[in-house]
């Protein structure tokens, strides 16, 4: 999911700099189907963890990868214009994903990314795992930078990145704080810094 979001954010930034419009309704509908697929597959995977509750189908890692990447694209398609519309003084009307060509290009890159992950080559998986962690931090930083910008009443006042160093640093700090708090709470609940061990 976070690799998909990072890909989507980078793609939109390269394709349509500072575009702040939401995608057209038909693209939002397509993204809605991706989000629905993620939710349905996630629910099915959750059902498989409950004893005596049969899932609708056998959960498959490749399908979780596809639906997770799709959900990441959805997050990026919503976060990118929201960020641009909040911080930039010279934000541009129109959507970064405004037609079949940009959407198709992004989805093709996402499928290529998933194929690369499915090779399970350690030389590829380790860097992608690090990029996925970076994706989480980038998403949180963007969200908290928007919130900080609004709290400081600096909406739409920035022309350059250097002008918004304070909101960016605050956004990064709040993102790191959220991650640390959630990790600490998980440690208190599970007694380990590792993942959950079921069964």
Task: Kindly describe this structure.
The protein has 199 residues and is mostly helical. 70% of the residues lie in helices and 4% in strands. A two-stranded parallel ribbon has the order 1-2. Helix 1 runs antiparallel to helix 4, helix 3 packs across helix 4 and helix 3 packs parallel to helix 5. The longest helix is centred in the last third of the chain and has 30 residues.
List the helices and strands and how they pair.
Blueprint (H helix, E strand, L loop, with lengths): L1 H14 L3 E3 L3 H23 L13 H27 L4 E4 L4 H19 L3 H30 L13 H26 L9
Parallel strand pairs: 1-2
Helix pairs in contact: 1-3, 1-4, 1-5, 2-3, 3-4, 3-5, 5-6
Which descriptors apply to this entry?
199 residues, mainly alpha, two-stranded parallel sheet
At a glance:
By secondary structure, the chain is mainly α. Helices cover 70% and strands 4% of the residues.
| Mean model confidence by pLDDT | 91
Apparent shape: globular
- Assembly type of the chains comes to single chain
Order of helices and strands: HEHHEHHH
What characterizes the major β-sheet?
2 strands, parallel
Helicity level, as a percent range?
55-70%
Number of domains: 1
Uncertain parts: none
Strand content: under 5%
Class by helix and strand content?
mainly alpha
Trace the largest sheet across and list its strands: 1-2
Number of separate helices: 6
Distance between the termini: 26 Å
Q: Specify Rg, calculated over alpha carbons.
A: 19 Å
Number of DSSP-assigned strands? 2
């Amino acid at each position: 999911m976070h690799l998909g979001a990072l890909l989507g954010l980078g793609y939109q930034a390269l394709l349509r700099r500072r575009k702040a419009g939401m995608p057209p309704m038909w693209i939002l509908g397509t993204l809605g189907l991706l989000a629905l697929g993620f939710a349905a597959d996630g629910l099915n995977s959750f059902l498989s963890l409950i004893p005596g509750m049969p899932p609708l189908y056998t959960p498959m890692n490749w399908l979780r990868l596809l639906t997770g990447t799709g959900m990441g694209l959805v997050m990026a398609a919503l976060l990118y214009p929201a960020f641009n519309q909040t911080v930039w003084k010279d934000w541009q009307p129109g959507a970064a994903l405004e037609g079949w060509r940009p959407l198709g290009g992004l989805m093709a890159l996402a499928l290529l990314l998933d194929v690369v992950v499915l090779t399970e080559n350690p030389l590829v998986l380790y860097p992608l795992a690090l990029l996925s962690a970076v994706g989480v931090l980038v998403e949180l930083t963007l969200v908290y930078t928007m919130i900080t910008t609004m709290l400081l009443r600096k909406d739409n006042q920035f022309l350059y990145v250097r002008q918004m160093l304070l909101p960016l640093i605050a956004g990064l700090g709040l993102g790191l704080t959220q991650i640390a708090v959630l990790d600490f709470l998980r440690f208190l609940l599970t007694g380990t810094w590792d993942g959950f061990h079921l069964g």
